[in-house]
Amino acid sequence: MLPEHLARIRARLEAMREEIVREGDARVRVEREEAVAGSADEDQAPHEEMDQAIASSRNRTRAATLARIDAALRRLDADPDAFGTCADCDDEIPARRLELMPFARLCVDCQAKRDPARGGARKHVLDFKG
User: What are the pLDDT digits (tens) for 40-85?
Assistant: First the structure.
């Protein structure tokens, strides 16, 4: 991969990281106010619970994305010549995929094999190795 392309990928990773850190975590309220039976607050409780579940899910997703970005930056620093090579088949990951997901470790075909939603074999693999 050309040094200019690697520089663009690094800039994209750093910008993505900065945005995630700047946004911070969504507020998840730990304490729960007990609704008084028959009050208007009783109707609000399911909405508040749903909002908390959504905030918690977003925080988990953001933390996982941040971990993938950090791992990609470490890979880029450790071995820039190997960056952009599929971790499974050693083929080059297409530039367009890296533009969209600069932290990608797998080419589209290998990712599809791991992703049951895309018809591939069912595997539960978290790919956060740096």
Answer: 567 777 777 777 777 778 888 899 999 999 999 999 999 999 999 9
Q: Is residue 34 part of a domain?
A: no
Number of structural domains in the chain: 1
What's 108's domain CATH number? 1.20.120.910
The domain in which residue 99 lies consists of: 3-29+42-118
pTM of the model: 0.70
- Express as a percent the part of the chain with pLDDT over 90: 51
Cβ pair 52, 29 in contact under 8 A: yes
